[in-house]
């Protein structure tokens, strides 16, 4: 074990869980943040899930204040996010507020809370963005706007922290096969060349962390070979 700690949000499933497994392979002690730790079946002696609702700023502050062995924190992966798509007038104010908190405010608060430690440790901060933040998406105006904000925050943070040897990385995945699409009316196509897997995103994180050349990758866009989505079929 390298004695270093990592914090991963949305760590109980999908990209967050895959990234957590890669960090464990590299010898990190991983603290994963999620709403429902009991729903995660993966277990490892160095993998610890912390219950926290990232839509609640007070719970985020509690997470920051109580995080164990803060002086050993070297990696933060801001991965958690969710989307509600639809015409703007059909989105409830409550869901819009939750999206703002989880997709944008939470990464900002977590970064704010731990940056001094990462400066001391010359650590890494990862942001998992979305292609929705770069392109127009029908009925995805709120989610896309928040991801665009996250992208810009990461880019500005890179310039701010590079002089302190803190490495800031923005990963922008295209269509990835996770349960992100569970409540949406679209989903990845069945063609295996039309979607990414969470493990592939985690591999990018692994490659960045293993690189010792002094070269920094501030932003990387990861896409499948083909662009295909399909509408879900609902039985009446």
What does this structure look like?
The chain is of the alpha/beta class. The protein has one domain (5-231): 3-Layer(aba) Sandwich (Rossmann fold). The chain is built from five helices and nine strands; from the N terminus they run βαββαβαβαββαββ. The strands form two sheets. Strands 3-2-1-4-5-6-8 form a seven-stranded parallel sheet, sandwiched between helices. Strands 7-9 form a two-stranded antiparallel sheet. α1 packs parallel to α5, α2 runs parallel beside α3 and α3 (93-121) packs parallel to α4. The chain is globular. The termini are far apart. This is SDR family oxidoreductase.
Domain count, please report it.
Answer: 1
Overall 3D geometry? Answer: globular
Radius of gyration of CA atoms, rounded to a whole number = 17 Å
Q: Share of helix among residues? A: 25-40%
Q: In order across it, which strands form the biggest sheet?
A: 3-2-1-4-5-6-8
CATH fold topology: Rossmann fold
Q: Which ranges are low-confidence, i.e. pLDDT below 50, for 5 or more consecutive residues?
A: none
Strand content: 15-25%
The name of the CATH superfamily reads NAD(P)-binding Rossmann-like Domain
> How many H/I helical runs?
5
What is the number of strand segments?
9
The largest sheet is:
7 strands, parallel
Name the helix and strand elements from N-terminus to C-terminus, one letter apiece: EHEEHEHEHEEHEE
CATH architecture: 3-Layer(aba) Sandwich
Mean pLDDT: 90
Straight-line N-to-C gap: 54 Å
Look at the helices and sheets and give the structural class.
alpha/beta
Using the coordinates above, name the CATH class. Answer: Alpha Beta
Protein name: SDR family oxidoreductase
Organism: Leptospira yanagawae
Pfam families: adh_short
Family: Belongs to the short-chain dehydrogenases/reductases (SDR) family.
